[in-house]
Structures are given as C-alpha cells and as structure tokens.
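note to self: dont lose this again. the chain is below, predicted strucutre after it. 361 aa total, dont forget to put it in the shared folder this time
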Amino acid sequence: MPVTFDVQPSPSARTDAEVAEILADPGFGRFFTDHMVSITWTKGQGWHSPKVVPYGPLSLDPSAAVLHYGQEIFEGMKAYRHEDGSVWLFRPERNGERFRTSAARMMLPDLPVDLFVQAVRELVTIDARYVPEAAGEHSLYIRPFMIASEAFLGVRAAEEVTFLVIASPVGPYFAEGVKGVDIWVTDKWARAGVGGTGAAKCGGNYAASLIAQYEGYEHGCTQVMFIEAAEKDRVEELGGMNVFLISADGQLVTPALTGTILDGITRDSILAVGEQLGLTPVERRLSAQEFLDGIAEGTFVEAFCCGTAAVISPISGFKSERGEWRLKGQDFATTVRIRDAVLDIQYGRTPDRFDWLQRVV
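---
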C-alpha cells in the first residue's frame, strides 16, 4: 500500500531556462535535480518519515557508522523520455529486489520493493522536467542509496539508517560515442572474493577496483576485467560492469553468477533480448585461459561490457602483462544489434514485449 510522502518544494529550484542549459550538455553526474527523497529507519520503529526535500548536503555526526565501517549500499537506474513526452522507468522492481539482496548481505534493514519503487517515482515525478529528450541517449540517472547514519563507533549493525534517492540528468557515459574499448586483465588485484560482498552493490567493491582500473589506464585501457584472485581459474566481471562474449556459432556467453559477480539488470535484459534476436544465451564458468584462447583462435568474435550507466560498450581487445588479444569482429555488428534492441525498448521505439517499462509521467 502506498505511503504518504511529505513533499517540501525547493525554494531555490532552477528556472526552466537554467534546466534547459543543463540539459543541453549534462555530461555524466555533474548536475543534480532540485529535490531528493529521504526515509529513516530506526530499530523498533522501522521505516518512517518519508519525505521529498530540497536537494542539499546531509548532516551526519562524525561518528556515523557509514564513515567508519562502510555500511552502505546503492543502486543505479534511469528514467527515459519517450517521443510523446511521457517518462518511463526500466525494470525498477528488479532494482528494488537487488537492493534488498544487497541490504541483507551488508546487515542493513529490508526496504520493501514497493516502497523503493514509490520513492523513485516520487522524485522523478517532482523533477520530471530534468528528464532529457531521448536524442543522443540522454536520460535521468537515478541513484537510490542507504547509509548507516547512527552515531556510534561500536562494530555492529547500525540501529539508525537513512535511505535517500537523488537524480542527475546525463548524456552518454562514453562521451566519444559507441566505439571499441580496450580492457586491462588482472589477477593481481581483486574486487571481491568467495564469501565476500561481490554480489552486493556496495561502495567498497568499487573502491577496491580502482587500483587495477588506474593500472589499466597506464596501458591505454578504459576498464579492468578481474580474474578470480585465489584460484585464478575463472573470469568474473569488470570494475563496474558485466562482460559478454559472442561466439562464431551464435552463442551469447557471460560468466555465471557465483556470488562474487553482481547480478546486473542490464546483463539479465541482454540475455533475454539476445535470445529474441536468435542468439543462444549461455551462463557458465569461464576460465581466463579459455576466454583469451577463444579470442586468439576466433571462437569468440565479439565482446562487450554492460551496465546501467554505459548500457553496452563494444570491446576491441584485452591486454595484460602477458600479452594482447584482439577480437576479430571489429565492426561490432551483433553487439550493436543487441545494444539497439535494448535502447529501443527503453526509449519506447519498439513494443515492450517483456513488460519491463513502468510509466511515471
């Protein structure tokens, strides 16, 4: 049952002209809308005080648990404007379900999916003018997150937590457009391990990936792909995205979820769309040897990475301290077909046969 949010309109909301100037060149994560959502959880009381308030700094006690023990989670999702001016969310309930999974792993309180989706809808509704026109893959990026806001230095699950939602109008994640990128491969560094937090969407995983990502930058690579560090016997994911291979015989291959890999919503959508396009979806364990040898031998002809922010980005090749492997399909034909099919659903250019879209405005 929907709850009632206390809506406090921002007294310093931007003018329509100022919003239009931002939407003309939003970049990625540079500008934020006029409002944010806040809901508080306290032990014994549960979730309470849902409100929409002006966007602004948070007031946290210096001893807030999130600042010391990293007890937090987040999601990434988007709102899309269709040609008729309407605004839609893409699979928001799946984000809500994954948010619950992350919360359970990080000992944070369970936020019902219905309340999660309503909170997102409340923000998108009040700040709908920040949802850009569809041209050029512009959208409204939405960041729901939960932090341990209790002022307490003991090592235990927080007894006061704050859930917030903020939003940012964005252009394409890769400003240079859709073209192949190179990926650095490492088994020296790890973002997660067996029994760890790899399947949770928490900040620590991303912080752990940065050292390897910057190592990749030094070798001309855009992202880093992690090989499981302990046994070094399987490919996992990139620093912030899932990875796919396309075989010469039409298989759409991605590493199986093992508890160390994030269950990507874009990943799941690609598996469904790929099958609709005539590919054979395969989720299985992939060793680094098979992965790289398959590229060298032509078994795998295309590769791409995917996530909410970037959608799908073609991969030209992989590099590591042991060498370099280039994909043979440098026209990225099948990758682009999949990418276009996903975007066409998100922007309402093709019928939503999967019932993934939810209208907000």
